[in-house]
Amino acid sequence: MYWQRKDLLGLKDLTVEEINLILDTAVPMKEIIGRKIKKTPTLRGRSVVTLFYENSTRTRSSFDLAAKYLSADTIGLAAASSSVAKGESLRDTGLTLNAMGVDVVVLRHPASGAAEYLARYVPAAVINAGDGTHEHPTQALLDLFTIREKKGSITGLKVCIVGDIMHSRVARSNIWGLTKLGAEVRVVGPATLMPPDIEQMGAKVYTDLAQALEGVDVVNVLRIQLERQQQGLFPSLREYSRLYGINQARLELTKPDALILHPGPMNRGVEIDPQVAYGSRSVINEQVTNGVAVRMALLYLLTGGEYNAIPH
Amino acid sequence: MQYLIKNGLVVDPVNETMSELDILVKDGVIAEMAQNIQAEEAIIIDAKDCYVCPGLLDMHVHLREPGYEYKEDIESGTRAAAMGGFTAVACMPNTNPVADTAAVINHIIERSARLGAVRVYPIGALTKGSLGKELTEMADLKAAGAVALSDDGQPVMDAGMMYRVMQYAGMLGLTVVSHCEDLSLAAGGSMNEGAVATMLGLKGIPNVAEEVMVARDILLAESTGCALHLAHISTAGSVRLVRQAKARGVRVTAEATPHHFSLTEEAVLGYNTNAKVNPPLRRQEDVAAVQEGLRDGTIDVIATDHAPHAYHEKDVEFPYAPNGLIGLETAVGLVFSQLVQPGILTVPKAIAKLCSNPRKILNLPGGQLIPGGVADITIIDPELSEVVDPAKLQSKSKNTPFVRWKLTGLPTLTMVAGQPVMQARRLLK
Ligand SMILES: [Zn+2]
């Protein structure tokens, strides 16, 4: 199996084989992160730009470290939000980076479809680091990697995604990835935060948390944004927490060995109880490590690798 | 100059008949309609196997002049109309400045008389600046030549304001053309609400955002007695509401666009900004309902909502692109390919929706070919095919989702006041 795509825009279009290739490639990459000297010459002489039109220290530093561990040259560009609002500059910015000889552009952008748009105009590889409410493929890949690492396989697992499904690109990418790998995906949240017809993406829809958690192997807890309450999409954090907060008592409904995931940063005490977040089933910190590994794998594959195969 | 249109099938959309007749055009009027006319001096136009129709009128176009001439202007817009088989267009007032005073209406009429390839009928604004706050001087607009009133592009959100608009316009005998969209329900949406929007991560506009306003405006029309015309209805629910209102005698008419009877929301896949339009492209069941509404007469008019935007405006991330697509040059082809050939509309019924019905709504004469009448004529060849090529379009803007579509059934003559402006798919002006 060889990697053939120019870009990574989302999980919707990836094949099972492609997803597995990324996850398999991330295994040796994770090993590098565990070393004392975290540096391989793999991407020496290659350049990676992180182009972020939205703040995200987490995702950005994860990509940055991933590139550095592979010896790529990296620069970060934070684009002014005013030019974004006018929608003028993305194409030109892309062409400029291209003219500077950039190999990979990692794009975070508030508009859905922005990564696909940019990828049309630049020969460089584009990695979607989150576009609007569309996809966040690297987050989903690190979730898949974490689940696979802990459970051995994803096939047949029941995974429950809890929270603001409507605005979550993490949820969308997870649904594509998990269902492709054979998991049953449930989404649960208030009706006002549930996008219409999401069952057509292959997820089962719940508004009752207890029903949704019944017998699941994995709970993926999404961050709830206070902003949504201000938009009148739910009445209060208090009520949200009462209906959809993940606490110890509710975990009783899941399988005894169920994993707890959260893309971070957490609102402790709102969508997730601290006891759960730091409890024995939580893999939230490992997700962060795995995020770097998965991103190393992607940078490696998208820049051609040695032979497009797994490094040993 | 005399023209003799021979061997065509003359369409009478008012009586829904077709007959083989020759038409002699002399000094801008129809001199004679009969079989086998002989006229030595006349230039012969052979219309064998073609439909000879009264000149088509598109009652919903945006010519963008004054103010946005980089998108389109009266000259380019009317050339596109002529190419599309339209002998007349009614243009919406969302220009800059808004056509909310007699001065702007006069300007459009004067420019059109000088530069227009076809007739232009301006539509005035309902409220000053189309802001929904104050009535325009409607009598003045009417005196200047406005044929109807609309705040198209912007709904009048305040029901009390719309009530007064209809009372006042009704008093003056002017039709109110309503853009039905409840902004609180449409809020920030950039395509139809549903599975495709969910998948693409785009905020959706639900059907009910249109239907709530259709229902409201129908009730206001019923209460005030004002003639109400609903622009670009797009949902099954809207069609049902109009059907019910007509059945109980409300003075309501409705239009549908070629894109709403030809395309579904799936045209947006790949973040195609040329398929970003308001109201958005809907689901298959809505497309079917619009087609059924056209078939059973619930929808009176086919209008294009020709909305040109410059390439750079559409060449952006999807949520930032403006709404709208061009339609003048593809309308007839879509009507024939999507409605006439599949048997949804007969030719006279289709022509009525493109010709006599809009004139009735705008209180304009014409819409029928009769001896002594003005020679505004469109000829359509139902067998002629063309592949849509943006490079060949007359419109300044090229924002069409129908690129590479093969359309069969195209206009081959557009004649205004006895003068051909388009013939054999070539502009003559
Ligand atoms: Zn409109």
TrEMBL record, chain A:
Residues where carbamoyl phosphate binds: R58, T59, R108, H136, Q139, G264, P265
Domain Aspartate/ornithine carbamoyltransferase Asp/Orn-binding residues, every copy: 156-302
Designated name of the protein: Aspartate carbamoyltransferase
Class of enzymatic activity (EC top level): transferase
Source organism per UniProt: Desulforamulus ferrireducens
E.C. number: 2.1.3.2
Stored HAMAP family: Asp_carb_tr
Residue span(s) of domain Aspartate/ornithine carbamoyltransferase carbamoyl-P binding: 6-149
Automatic annotation (TrEMBL), chain B:
Dihydroorotase catalytic domain ranges (all copies): 52-236
EC number(s) reported in the record: 3.5.2.3
Family that this chain belongs to: Belongs to the metallo-dependent hydrolases superfamily. DHOase family. Class I DHOase subfamily.
Purpose of the protein: Catalyzes the reversible cyclization of carbamoyl aspartate to dihydroorotate.
Residues the record lists as binding substrate: H62, L63, R64, N94, N278, H309
Pathway: Pyrimidine metabolism; UMP biosynthesis via de novo pathway; (S)-dihydroorotate from bicarbonate: step 3/3
GO cellular component, one term: cytoplasm
Obligatory cofactor(s): Zn(2+)
Residues at the active site: D305
Binding-site list for Zn(2+) 1: H60, H62, D152, D305
A molecular function (GO) term: dihydroorotase activity
Name of protein: Dihydroorotase
Alphabetical list of Pfam families matching this protein: DHOase
Origin: domain of life: Bacteria
Assigned keywords, A-Z: Hydrolase, Metal-binding, Pyrimidine biosynthesis, Zinc
Binding site for Zn(2+) 2: D152, H179, H232
Catalysed conversion reaction: (S)-dihydroorotate + H2O = N-carbamoyl-L-aspartate + H(+)
One GO biological process term: purine nucleobase catabolic process
SUPFAM superfamilies registered for this protein in UniProt: Composite domain of metallo-dependent hydrolases, Metallo-dependent hydrolases
Cofactor binding annotation: Binds 2 Zn(2+) ions per subunit.
